[in-house]
Amino acid sequence: MSILNEILTYNQKFVENKEYEPFQTTKFPDKGLVIVSCMDTRLTELMPSAMNIKNGDVKIIKSAGAVISHPFGSVMRSILVAIYALKAEEVMVIGHYDCGMSNVNADALIAEMQDRGVEPSTLDTLKYSGLDLKKWVQGFESVEESVQNSVELVRNHPLLPEGIKVHGLVIDPATGRLDVVDADN
Ligand SMILES: [Zn+2]
Asked: Residue 157, Cβ neighbours under 10 Å: how many?
């Protein structure tokens, strides 16, 4: 059985019992902040709690490794929308220690794709259409370096307006402790 049915059953009661009431807020981030963080399961509740962030406070964009890999990809677009349409004024890129994206073995991952039915011809087609698959799935060696790269990408983005502060941090997924990589003061 899929997790979907379990969630739908819970959801029906949640709505019926009006358990949503404590979460009601607007679409505008009260703290004027956008966070880019990792999809790691340990951070789901820990990161907002450790930062005193409540529903309605911030925009949170998640990507594997908190990496912004393309200046015109969906993460950067989300940041720009948060700034221009939703009044965010500050950006934080928050990586974390012990991240699944550190030292990803790209060759093993691509081999796993083939084991699970992706045809070699598909990989060839992607290659000929200009995608370096290995580079695309590759993670990073140093989380600090990766965060710094993403911070620079945002700071130097041609569509970023003046006056937006962009910070880089790393969070401990066990304790929630934040270490500053680069503070934009
Ligand atoms: Zn991670």
From this structure: 17
Give the tens place of pLDDT for each residue, 19-76: 999 999 998 989 999 999 999 999 999 999 999 999 999 999 999 999 998 999 999 9
Same domain, 161 and 78: yes
How remote is the CA of residue 87 from the centroid of ligand 1, in Å?
27
Which range marks the domain in which residue 114 is found?
A: 105-138
90, 48: one domain: yes
For residue 58, the domain's CATH number is: 3.40.1050.10
Residue 166 C-alpha to ligand 1 middle, in angstroms? 20
- Phi, psi for residue 168 in degrees, rounded to 5: -120, 135
Q: Which amino acid is at 73?
A: G
pTM of the model: 0.88
